[in-house]
Design goal:
- There is one protein chain.
- Strand 5 and strand 6 form a beta hairpin.
- Helix content is about 55%, strand content about 10%.
- The radius of gyration is 38 Å and the shape is flat.
- The chain has a seven-stranded mixed beta sheet, with helices on both faces. A three-stranded antiparallel beta sheet has the order 5-6-8, with helices on one face.
- By secondary structure, it is of the alpha/beta class.
- The protein has 15 helices and ten strands.
């Protein structure tokens, strides 16, 4: 039975020629192409019907918007998420903040006032105005004059801290004002006007004795270390170092000065300009050229923002590099610093308590090109990149030869003695 079936199948399959097979393939291709065109036309007709039914009112003449690139979509999304108010914003109440404090805070925030002495004097001057304008509440007891005033001062100081971190010298000065307020009340001062007068007098005496007179004494001690044919090197700008160089030049001593500078503030430019106007021979260079100019240097004079009890110096970022290189080249390093900047704190590194500058405020004062500013701003806006702009560093005491203050020239190891004895005598 199976054999006849197989013969019938073979009879049904007739052999085809090459031309017939080619014609069959072309017919199949034409059928597929026609089917695709029909499907595309039906799909386009359906989309057009959907657009007509979902078309918003008044949008007939609008052109279709182009799709934004993925980078712009991501940036827009990130900004929207960051700007989305998670909680209702709380405006800070400025009614209790003195106008003088607000003005000083704005100067600190935009780095209009820089330098330890300048910041401390401006802070004390503003606090003096706060004390003069302060009025006690009606329910105040005469035996507690210090508490309402100190509370009000703390509120003003907290506002200053929000604009910029307080320096160690400012902290010591503010602590002196608070302690003087408590001491006067403990000694029996019960009159408001008398307390104001005594505090204003104490602040004026602090500025005169601990800052102005101290700078004069530092100049008297430091000018004796400048000799003829000296090559002095300084970093950035320091008021005490500038006064020493000016006094040495007024004594007709023959020497020249090398001013080393670096970002972000380029404070050495003002230092070099000032010394050039005085007639001093000045060489200006950046921190990257330090090793090339140190060979001819005879002494290094630097300023300081604070001196720790261990003898370490807290100064503008780059000071540790200058002192370390000078120590390597066996050059004496002299630090010029007032004693009100001495502190009993002991820091082991310059990262824990450092201050990070606002990059936009720093660029405004650095006098950089607009192209560099735009490049830095673009880098600062990247999500996966953090820009660190530290303002200070810590110089080990072994890099320092001597500290010049109003009490004289002392080694770094004698700083604890000055903190213990001199501060007790002054206070």
């Amino acid at each position: 039975m199976s054999e006849p079936a197989q013969d019938g199948d073979k009879a049904q399959k007739k052999p085809t020629t090459k031309a017939e097979r080619r014609a069959l393939q072309e017919a199949q291709r034409a059928a597929k192409a026609a089917k695709k065109e029909a499907e595309a036309a039906a799909r386009a007709k359906g989309v057009q019907l959907d657009k007509q039914t979902k078309k918003p009112q008044g949008s007939g003449d609008k052109k279709p918007q182009k799709e934004k690139p993925k980078a712009e979509q991501k940036e827009t999304k990130t900004k929207e998420e960051s700007n989305a108010p998670k909680e209702p914003p709380q405006r800070e109440n400025l009614a209790n903040i003195h106008p003088a404090i607000q003005q000083v805070a704005a100067q600190y925030k935009h780095y209009t006032v820089k330098g330890g002495n300048a910041r401390c004097v401006s802070c004390l001057t503003a606090l003096k105005q706060v004390i003069q304008d302060f009025t006690y509440p009606p329910s105040n007891e005469r035996t507690q004059l210090s508490k309402p005033l100190i509370t009000h001062l703390n509120q003003q100081i907290a506002f200053l801290v929000k604009s910029r971190k307080l320096s160690i010298s400012m902290g010591n000065a503010i602590h002196y004002v608070k302690r003087k307020t408590t001491t006067l009340c403990e000694e029996g001062c019960t009159d408001e006007n008398e307390l104001r007068k005594e505090l204003v007098k104490a602040i004026d005496m602090f500025i005169y004795d601990r800052i102005l007179t101290a700078g004069t004494r530092i100049t008297q001690h430091g000018v004796n270390k400048v000799e003829d044919r000296d090559v002095l090197l300084t970093y950035g700008r320091s008021t005490a170092v500038e006064l020493i160089i000016k006094a040495a030049h007024d004594k007709n001593k023959q020497f020249r000065v090398i001013v080393v500078d670096s970002r972000p503030f380029f404070e050495g430019r003002a230092m070099a300009t000032r010394l050039t106007e005085l007639g001093v021979k000045v060489t200006y260079c950046l921190l990257s050229a330090l090793s090339n100019v140190l060979r001819d240097v005879t002494k290094v004079f630097i300023g300081a923002s604070a001196v720790m009890t261990t003898g370490h110096v807290y100064g503008r970022a780059g000071t540790a590099v200058v002192c370390g290189m000078a120590h390597t080249y066996q050059k004496p390093v002299l630090v010029c610093c007032e004693t009100y900047k001495f502190t009993d704190k002991s820091w082991l590194n310059s990262l824990t308590n450092n201050e990070e500058a606002n990059i936009q405020g720093a660029m405004k004062l650095s006098q950089m090109d607009e192209a560099d500013n735009k490049e830095l701003l673009q880098l600062a806006q990247l999500d996966n990149l953090s820009v660190n702009n530290l303002l200070y560093d810590l110089t080990p005491a072994e890099f320092l030869s001597m500290i010049i203050s109003e009490v004289g020239m002392i080694p770094p190891t004698s700083v604890p003695v000055v903190i213990r004895e001199y501060h007790l005598a002054v206070n």
